[in-house]
Amino acid sequence: MKLEQQLIERLQTLAPSHLEVINESAGHGGYFPGKESHFKVIVVSDAFQGLRLVQRHQKIYAVAAELMSPGQIHALAIHAYVPSEWQGQAPASPECAHAPKP
C-alpha cells in the first residue's frame, strides 16, 4: 500500500471533518516518478479542541509514527485546526531550495 494511503488511514483515526493529504515530493530534490517522501496534511478535527499547536502536531506525529522512519516519510508539513478555526484553505508550502529546476 502506498505511503499516502497509509497516512490517510492513520489520520482518519482523528475523526476529521476535513482531511487533505498532498504528496509534495515532486517539488524536492531527488524526486523520481512515484516517490513518496514529502507530504502536507490539513486536518480539521474536534480532537484538537483545547490543544496548543505543538500538542496538535504531537497527536498527528503519534498516529503517523510508523511511517516516519528512514526510507519512508522524510518531511511532513502539518496544518491542524478545530472546525471553528478552519477557513477553507491552508498556507502554501515554501519552495524547496533543492527542487528540480525546469
TrEMBL record:
InterPro entries: BolA, BolA-like_sf, BolA/IbaG_stress_morph_reg. Transmembrane segments: none annotated. Coiled coil: none annotated. Belongs to the BolA/IbaG family. This is BolA family transcriptional regulator. It comes from Acinetobacter halotolerans.
